[in-house]
């Protein structure tokens, strides 16, 4: 696994070509299938807590937000998340709805986390990093055994189950799977009930066929969630219907392999409050690797994307935009030990026009086990459709006073210029690495007041109309240390520490950007029937500035969280079953990662304190 044998793990996200972590032109962390299995995490955001530089924030049991190197928020919008190279970033809100994604945790093969700008290869929204969730192919599933996981929770009423299996029919390999998850939510434990319960059903099916020139893969994934979503807008008993349809063709063994992918992502949200959303994303892309010479490997491609949304925030009017892009990146060997990565991308959007994203990275091997890297990259975050087309009145005092939110078609993309140096040393039983970065951010987008209510009777500076504007910039600098090491026979550890100093143009702190974070993990490995893994997470304090309450600032306290999983294996080594118990928040039960901020719609609380959750279950792999 990556903890001890990272260079034996092949990664693709940092370059769109296969290579080792040490050869990557960016800071890369891999979470492998073994780590997922060993952890007690039941969600992908909880898995990501252990990675250096990654910020995870639970708003409540039904919503989590993830960012890299600061700038987290209620709708984290500066991180591109993909599944098998397919973007799951929601263009209309600028976020990822983790609970509503049709993903089975047990089917994930590995998660590749790239810290730093990624727009040269991936375009809009690969601002501070890229996370690529790679799942097992139908062929890999058909060659193995079925997987089954079930668990019951303590501390909150709920249960979870997921299973998948595969097979072959002629030249086709196929797999089918499903999952179910329900929870009364953390809010059920609150004195004043917070609405964050959910029930989720996932169904998926895909097929794969080997053709003379490559591999064809077709997949359909669905998620139906009935849940409460109180992050900003009080959407209780909301029915979320997410559908993903993907077709891809990969020439995986060709000298100059070609890859073509087309997908459609749809999301429909309806609820008794008529806070409805309909979103549809269509994306078609193609890329090719070309070995120009023994010293040069070129990757180039193009992409076309169109998005349409009809939502309560656009006065239920249909709004759309489209974009196209071309990119190229050359991997040039300057010698036996040195490689230069140089790339450029041009994006054109029907709303905000052209954006150019360059990247340069020099990777030098001091020895077979030591690597130095220096990088420069530029990236951008596209304005969301909501920021362009806001047309919504928030009833602060129902029937008396509303705040009008207006979109702005002239708002520019947010930009980042990043400078980074890194060092990594591979060892027989682990590794050590350090990365330092400096980011200059400009054209940040936020809602600002353009008109104010009369005073009296309203308090001074009470906004009556707000619109999306580019309000200024920020700078961020930081240091990330990470290591993996043997502790004793059959026991290994992982430690990382992240420091980030994120300030706006006026020198003030930026939302949910804690200066200090640290993670320590200990886990067993080998053939023992008893296994365990424990994770300690420390997250420093931060602030939240509420734009709906005249920029009132809330403090978010530091917390220490401990998670644990203990399992006992029964059955044969060829067909093992494991009985397990796992727990989250053994330390820090009741801590808040998001403050108790009233909803702008009805004044109810938006967040719930994270509760201790204990799972009992069985699993087979």
TrEMBL record:
GO cellular component terms, alphabetically, are:
cell outer membrane
- Gene3D superfamilies (alphabetical): TonB-dependent receptor, beta-barrel domain, TonB-dependent receptor, plug domain
Membrane association type: Multi-pass membrane protein
State any single GO MF term.
Answer: siderophore uptake transmembrane transporter activity
**Where is this chain's protein located in or outside the cell?**
Cell outer membrane
Q: Which UniProt keywords apply?
A: Cell outer membrane, Membrane, Receptor, Signal, TonB box, Transmembrane, Transmembrane beta strand, Transport
> Residue limits of the TonB-dependent receptor-like beta-barrel domain?
212-586
The family this protein is said to belong to: Belongs to the TonB-dependent receptor family.
Q: What is this protein called?
A: TonB-dependent receptor
Q: Which organism is it from?
A: Capsulimonas corticalis
